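REQUEST ID: PR-0412
SUBMITTED BY: lab tech R.K.
PRIORITY: routine
TASK: structure prediction, single protein chain
INPUT:
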Amino acid sequence: MLSSLCVAQKKEIIQLKDNIKDRKGLTRSLIFIDNRPDKNIGAIHDKKDIVELTFANDDLKGFIENWFKEDNKTLGNNDIVLMLEELKIYEEQDSNRTFPYVKVRIKLSSFIKRNDKYYFIGRYNNVIVSNPNITVHPSIFLAGEIAEIFAQFIKASYYPNITPGYFIPESEINRYEEYLSKGYKAFSNDALKDGVYTSFQKFHNQEPDPDYSLKKNKKGKVVQLIYNDLETSLYKMYCYVENGKAYKTTPVGFDEMNKDAKGFYIYSSRTNLFAASQTGGLFVGAVAGGLVGALIGAAIDSSSDANAGAVQGVGFRSTMESNVYLDSLTGGYVFEK
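STATUS: complete
OUTPUT:
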């Protein structure tokens, strides 16, 4: 115990200094809510040191809100709320790995506030992995990834694509997921409706698109998506349901969607979900408003793309297969390993 206490602990600062200017000037304020149960991010082994990750300022709310003010002099009418729900760094040795990987779990959500009503914009909910076998300093690497996710996610949240009338009362904001999930028909209904779903929102509401159908080959494999008798790309489809079973479109084919108490999931890996598609090219989820945000992928408008939720370029692209959940509000991939 004494020896562990005597180890000199170093600090790695998460530098929130990227430009977060709203280039359209639509945003009036950025309100930050820190809902983490534990404000301590944690410490990891880095070479011979134990390194703690921390922000530059203990007053994170004031720091982030001032960050916005410094970069935005032309203000609009939108009040954006950024909620940090989880940020924890740790080391984990998975069952099929010979050494532990350094990981950070981060969950960020955003809303637009109008009077006492909050409208959900989107969220980033993932585990970022650092492979110590190829990363010299995992603490520096992950601190940089966290900072860039904050910046890109904030910028993506400036241009919300929200549903009018679908709001969260101010009294429910701290339990927004439970409040919004009440209408998750795909999860709560006993059976799924057969058909093609062109977005996660349609799947969420169990509204298959009657204009779309599937074409199969002689072996019964789905090979084409049909729109009003015309062939179109499979990647316009979020998933399809056949005989009550759902299948998710991915770059390497269709993965069966299963369900447990936590929600729907597929069994896959980062490598597969970041892979070049069968038709060529790398698919990265779109971000609302056409904002270029390759780092975040589909953090905001994850229902718009078959590969929604894949976060291009963030962390180590592990080949390890595990349950990858589909975010109950966005349909994006939630990696837990």
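NOTES: Residues 273 and 320 are 12 Å apart (CA to CA).
REVIEWED BY: pending
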